[in-house]
Amino acid sequence: MEAGLPVNRLSRSAPRVPVGIVHLGLGAFFRAHGAVYIEEAMSLSGGDWGILGVSLQSATMRDQLTPQGGTYMALELGPEGEMLRHVQSVQDVLVARENPGAVLEAMADPGVRIVSLTVTEKGYCHAPSTGRLNMAHPDIVQDLAHPLPVSAPGFLVRALALRQARGLAPFTVLTCDNLPNNGQVVRGVVLALARALDPDLAAWIETEGRFPSTMVDCIVPATKPEDLARLEALIGAHDAAPVLHEPFRQWVVEDDFVGGARPDLAAVGVQMVRDVTEYEHMKLRMLNGTHSSLAYLGYLAGHETIADCMADPVLDRFVQRLWTREIIPALQPPEGVNLAEYADALRARYSNPGIRHRTWQIAMDGSQKLPQRILGTLETNLGAARPCPGLMLAVAAWMVYVRGTDLAGQPIEVKDPLAPELRLAACSDDPVGALLALQAVFPQRLAQALESPLRKAHAALLTQGAKAAMEAVQ
Ligand code: CS2
């Protein structure tokens, strides 16, 4: 581009498609993953599966995407090169906080047959240690009292109520968040809220509703300001909301949709299965479990990104040891999957230098992530009397991280819905004991068993520092 010339804005080139899917939580992950698969499925097999994106809180995405006709660029960053795609499956964007009524009407539209979600772990308003709806959550308290909701469970329940009242079939609820048994979790929170509002509605959802579980995978770091300039140089137009992602992607979906209505996902490589549990466990424990371990330990060791962690031989060895000695032995592989090969592939994915995935970003919301990513593996290993000093060190690193100061005394910006409680506990005279007492994170039975090894790991971190403590793990 010559300096001084006005830069065009990215605009829609493909015709609009009728909306069949409302998606709650229009973040970078869904735009790089589900929205692309759905677009590919429509172009191969047709179907009215246009997406209406909904941001629950912020207007930013709507403000960025609307002038571009809902479209954006997805830039794939591979070790062998880059690939660009102009994604056009999102037709329109609404902001729930500004106009909850319009979102409910959209969800109740007869053409809509799927409501998908990426609202992050905390968006389900559940207790991470039990998976059950937290009735005392401020958003749930408000959604019980007011017909216009603010929470994701609130929108699902009120929209399903409209559909029931209008004699329509329910939509399929397709959760794409990194929770174990994510379909069961969302079904549980929806039914709990519906029961509290209207038992007839709850009974209808229980029999007619469908909540397939899914396993989703693609590494999509938050888009950074420098990425916008890079995209502009590549395409010669301004895209306010591009997404950057790795080449690898996987989507495993339980094939259980209301009336069988869904895009032809199998045609574009989505694995349609009867039961997703083993895939979910594998991915949450092997990928997300080591991601979180590297996030806390890597941050404390001074590493900015996952790729930086992998370039450090101490962390590279440490993460391989986590897979082979602690995580794989506690897993049942999905049929036909070799977990050692899966670990090798993860190692290569983490090392991709094109992907600048910050440890700080992954460290966010640890209270919502630890149970399914790490504590489940610890529990299985404790039951089998298998020591797991590496994962203990990772949990201990989280305990240091959430106090809000690193090992050199520098401040950390801790993002977590429980941040104030975590900080109080982590800064008390007995940080390990006080954090283990948080039952929303640690089930009581597990807290007891974890106490002594965690005290040891925590002390090792404080006295030796992160890298020496990782090196000492045998
Ligand atoms: C990451 C995930 O931010 C995080 O917590 O662990 O977003 C991870 O990149 C994806 O689950 C990969 O599929």
From TrEMBL:
> The Mannitol dehydrogenase N-terminal domain covers which part of the protein?
20-263
Coiled-coil stretches, from where to where?
none
Spell out the Pfam families in the cross-references: Mannitol_dh (PF01232), Mannitol_dh_C (PF08125)
Mannitol dehydrogenase C-terminal domain ranges (all copies): 275-448
Please give the Gene3D superfamilies that the UniProt record associates with this protein.
N-(1-d-carboxylethyl)-l-norvaline Dehydrogenase, domain 2, NAD(P)-binding Rossmann-like Domain
Gene Ontology terms for molecular function: oxidoreductase activity, acting on the CH-OH group of donors, NAD or NADP as acceptor
Name the keywords, alphabetized: Oxidoreductase
Q: Which InterPro entries match?
A: 6-PGluconate_DH-like_C_sf, 6PGD_dom2, Mannitol_DH, Mannitol_DH/Oxidoreductase, Mannitol_DH_C, Mannitol_DH_N, NAD(P)-bd_dom_sf
Query: What protein name is recorded for this chain?
Result: Mannitol dehydrogenase family protein
